[in-house]
Fold this sequence. Notes:
By secondary structure, the protein is mainly alpha-helical. The protein is about 85% helix and about 0% strand. The protein starts with a helix and ends with a helix.
Amino acid sequence: MAVGIAVCAGLVALWSFADAARNRMPERPLLIALVVIEVLLVAQLVIGIVLLVRGGHPGSLATYLAYLIGCLVVLPVGAGWALAERSRSSTVVLGIACLAIPVMVLRLNEVWSGG
Length: 115
């Protein structure tokens, strides 16, 4: 699941940067793509909680929970910023937020495996 989320977020980041290069503001299809990624992140949260309830032990519980919850916050904050200031730079902000997701998700998996 983590690889799928990372790939989706990477593709949406490329889309955002391409729109910024064309001097476009964030439009509805891009925002819908962000919602899809957020839904995948919520599914990851549910899976992560189920793994904990079933007795799984990450390398560091506090770090694991911080990444698990932190992933959910990045896109809404980026989207809020982008919608407050609809300009080319706001599209770049969405791209940067999308680039943060793969880093956080892959780090989440490292923490789970004790790395």
